[in-house]
Amino acid sequence: MEDESNPTDLHAIGEKHIRAAEEAEILVIGAGEAGIAAALTAARAGAKVTLVDENPVGAGLIGMDVPLLYGNRWTAAVQNQGRMLEQVLAASPGLEEAFELGVDVRLGTYAWGAFVAGPNLRSLPEPVVGLADETRSWLMGFRRLIIAAGARDLVLSFKGFEIPGVVGALGMASLIRTYAAFNGTNIVILGSGDLAVATATMALDAGLSVAAMVEVRDAPQADVSALVARGVALITGHTILEAAGTAEGVSAALLAPIGGGAPQRIACDTICLAIGAVPVIDLADVAGAKMTRENGAFVPAKLPAGVFLAGDCAGLGQDAALSGRVAAASALASLGYTAETPPERETSTPLAEDTDAYRMDWMRALMATGGADVMACSCEEVSRRDLLEVQPPRYLQAPTEKHNSLASLETDGPVNQDQIKRLTRACMGPCQARRCREQVAMIMAIGTDRPLAAIALAGYRAPVRPLPLGVLAAAEECQEMVEGWNVWFGIRTQWIPYDDIGTEREIERAGRMAHF
Amino acid sequence: MSEIKKSAAVIIVGGGVTGLSAAWWLARDGVDVLVIDKGIVGWEASGRNGGGCTHYQSPLFHEEQRLWPQMDELLGYPTEYRRERVIMALTEAQLSQYKDHGDICAGMGYHYEVLDQKQTRELVPLAGDNVVGAVHYHFGGQANPQRTVQAYAWALQDLGGRILQHTAVSSLILEGDKIRGVETSLGRFDCDHLVLAAGPQSGALLAGIGITLPVAPARAEMIVTEPLPLMKIGGVDGNGLYGRQTLRGNLAYGGGPHEWLADTPAAGGPISRPATQLLQNLSKRLVELFPKAAHVRVIRSWAGIIENTPDGRPVIDRLSDPGNLTVCTMSSVGFGLSPATGHAIRDLVVDGTCSFAEIGKLGLGRFANLPRDWRVRQGWVPPAIPDYESAKA
Fold first, then answer.
1. First-last CA distance in chain B
2. Set of chain B residues whose Cβ sits within 8 Å of the Cβ of A512
3. Which among A39, A221, B72, B251 counts the fewest CB atoms within 10 Å?
């Protein structure tokens, strides 16, 4: 291999990367409304389509609130994979049509990474998505990738947040509609905008009770008249002070009036956060997309070649089916297929322009009533105070009295969320910050007196689902990887003891340093 | 914005561990020092490495070993330093090699022992029946890079040293036979002495004044798992991996192939792209190393960009011309040695010579006759830009 005219670094990546085990012409990630519309459009045009969806999500991840805030409000049925699979098929009628059109549908399959060559990353021999099920991982190559990863719950914590029964609107909808495995009966909904109204309506339609709808502002943020007519109590000018209950579950929501005064107690077994949702941009970020902030969320602004977005992950409030068709049409056209031209997007309903302000109203109210000792990051036990004071993590037991405020850190330059992660460990836990990412940014905005939009996005990292080492471990490697693996760069002269440099022992040692 | 003082006795370009440690050592001597960084302190490789503090190959080894146990106290902030290391072998060939390194250290007066399988499994609860044995260093250790970088920065500020972040240095100002300062995105800054510790960017900055510092940047990757109960010794690696169990309990490990990158421009710096499917190869080796951790979830991966010199050894050199310029690259092995490196740089800047070790073989002069195309000759070149479309068509 190694000759003087064409030297090779045997320890560099070269052609050692694991190759795709299979190949899709158009790969669609996410079988929600947008992903199904994209897959059907592409299949009808004659493309070879693979549609991947993580549902039914394994019980282990559901227990970690990945990808949604399920809040320990599921029945044991989530542990029966066969039943869960039937439920998913029953809940998504479009999947049947996809099967009929010859779409290769993969359910219960996680997409944990998307890898495309770009600046300072040329070694990837082909664009791939990392996939996994409960037992193994593999790579799927693609010519075009349509990410339709949807949205996840916007999570704001409060006292008692960790008690079973504090759920997100999307997590609860998944348990009720997709899995038929929700074990709550009586719900308090936080928020009164479109998401909250849709969530309350769904719960009532499913035969559940909605004890109250709580709004931090003085007036509801959407039309709640139909809900009020069905007996839902609307409580404005309040925030949640505490989820009361035991380790068994929530028994009541304690609501605090914004202007001060005695809290009121509403009996319930579920408290549902329906203040907002967050586009799932993790895969796009890992693939190298450039992000921008619009309408209260980070969304991809520029995607790597061959990658397209559909549905909520491109920005909330879109007509999901339409955006799926648009994405598929773009992907098809780039492959030379003749595709139907979807109508202009006129049915999308973008979020209110004051989305950031609205969410910050909630955050400020939660902090004003609940105080600074509430956990902001439950995985790493980082409180709101720890964030405001940039305190070292608790396991160090070394609270600092110097350099102890976000405001003072800000004097060294704009405070960055990735830096706060390093210093406090907030967002560094096993839930991969799904329960705290947005909330930490909000507290940073409050602590530095800057607009929320000024807090830069903290980077996402593969694997974008927390998967076991044994699952992610490569099944096989090429011989070049096995033989070329080195703990570091494999530069023989690098590890020669200093005193031996320039002596005869240097040459003798260099021969033995081949595979440190 | 308040008025920034645009001069210092010593300006240090680069707020990584090397630059920050040097600045801290200088500030301890009362020197008026300013660190300028294009971004946030420790943002690049300094904050993204394995945290190892055991570098027998360096002339700074003894000082590294002397200083680490004192660093929390000296800096006033926790570095998460933990002592000792265990290197586990899964093959006899690995064990033979690890013993070889242990013998080098023993020859310098450090104590290590060889463990058999039973002893290894007693000491490392995550080890499996595939382990052949291990070497146990009763010296060395590991620290938390992110916390250490910030500890240097805060300790420096506590001594009156200054750090200017988000300010890119675009060129060095050479007038006659002296460096006068640097041009930055905030204008000119003047100094009496300049320390260049800008990682991959150092090469291009020096090229601007006609000096060649041969460095090649590359990216390397690591993975991190969810936390586990703490093992007695955190610094357990081997099987072709470097890394540690963090004090929080996470397993953080790297190793394997690197990707050579194009030369880094002076300003702007490297664009760091996170990991690739190499995380599958890393996971494979980590689960081989710790079979009892197969169920543990990987929650992150990351990549860092580091530079190497042609022989992989550092350059720590106060140049003769210009005489007020000190250059340092640690050639991809900088974090653990940083307490000692800062001390050496302090000595070079203040006294002109390193007081505690002979470091003459780390001079820039050794590359004087290096051919211009040395990267090509060593095979240290970036892969070709892939063309997916024509490959698939």
1. 55
2. 97, 100
3. B72
**Cis preceding linkage at B322, omega within 30:** yes
d(CA A122, CA B276): 11
Angle subtended at Cα A370 by Cα A366 and Cα A376, rounded to the nearest 5 degrees: 70
Who's near A160: CB < 8 A, 6+ residues apart? A166, A242, A243, A244, A245, A250
| DSSP codes joined into one string, B214-262 | --EEEEEEEEEEPP-PPPS-S-EEETTBEEEE-TTS-EEEE-S-BEE-P
Closest in B242, B259, B287 to A470, CB measured? B287
- The answer to whether residues A116 and A307 touch, using CB atoms and an 8 Å cutoff, is yes
Interface test with B, best of A487, A499, A508, A512 (most B CBs within 10 A): A487
CB within 8 Å: B147 and A124 = no
Q: Is A42 left (phi over 0), alpha (psi -120 to 50) or beta?
A: alpha
Q: Strand, helix or coil at A506? A: helix
Q: Are B296 and A469 inside 8 Å of each other by CB?
A: yes
The confidence band for A486, taking pLDDT boundaries of 50, 70 and 90, is very high
Neighbours of B253 (CB within 10 A): 26
Measured CA to CA in angstroms, residue B59 lies from A164, A497, B105, B354, B382 at distances of 57, 8, 12, 11, 31
Residues of B in contact with A396 (CB under 8 A): 78, 80, 247
Q: SS3 for B364?
A: helix
User: Using CA atoms, how far apart are residues A137 and A118, in angstroms rounded to an integer?
Assistant: 24
Judge whether B141 and B53 are in contact, CB under 8 Å.
yes
Q: Concatenate the DSSP letters of all residues of A195-220 into one string.
A: HHHHHHHHHHHTT-EEEEEEESSSS-
Backbone angles phi, psi at A128, to 5 degrees: -140, 160
Answer yes or no: are the C-beta atoms of A417 and A442 closer than 8 Å.
no
Q: What is the pLDDT of residue A3?
A: 44
Is A501–B361 a contact, with Cβ atoms under 8 angstroms apart?
A: yes
- Are B383 and B276 in contact by the 8 Å Cβ rule? The answer is no
Angle at which helices B338-351 and B17-28 cross, to 10°: 50
Which segments within A390-505 are labelled E, that is strand?
A: 467-468
- Which tens digits make up the pLDDT trace of B147-192? 999 999 999 999 999 999 999 999 999 999 999 999 999 999 999 9
Phi, psi of A103, deg, nearest 5: -70, 135
Q: Which of A488, A493, A507 to substitute to test the interface with B, most B CBs within 10 Å?
A: A488
Among B57, B284, B386, the residue with its CB nearest the CB of A474 is: B284
- A470 contacts in chain B (CB < 8 Å): 287, 294-295
Structural contact between residues A28 and A37, judged by C-beta atoms closer than 8 angstroms: no
Chain B hits for A380, CB-CB cut-off 8 Å, are 248
